[in-house]
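Side project, low priority. Logging it here so it doesn't get lost.
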Amino acid sequence: MPFKANYQDIPAERYQYLRIKCGLSKKSDEAVAIGLKNSLCSVAIIHTGQSNEIIGMGRIVGDAGCHCLVVDICVLPDYQGKGLGKLIMQKLDEFIVVHLPPSCYVSLIADGKSHELDSNENFKTAIPKKPKIPSSTRTIEKSGGNGGKTCRHKNWCSCS
């Protein structure tokens, strides 16, 4: 597969481009700078056959203890339907299990059909009726430690 998912920061210009091309709202440059700097985790989908272009992304934001949100899940339209959204969710889920406390309340609020990406059974629909904006939450089951992995994430993390 000519795609790979990396834990890496998303450049502000690429973040805005992906949001607009994927039908999400544009954010002010100031908001993007603040938001990206305060991400707990960012995942980029890289098209390895196209000069390492970022074609998809997802982020986790929050306090890293009690509450977090999965946000900005998007893949450029030309690459949708290839399982890349699910790949983003898998990478974010790995981060959740390794780096967040088991009692952390992790929510996903999705536009359109992107709520279907949470079908990995880790997230459960929080509202039984069909709301205008689907939302899901998950709890973390973790056996402790980080499995011997070295943390490559933000400086707040104490797992390494």
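Brief comment: Residues 3-101 form a domain with the Aminopeptidase fold (CATH 3.40.630.30).
Revisit when time allows.
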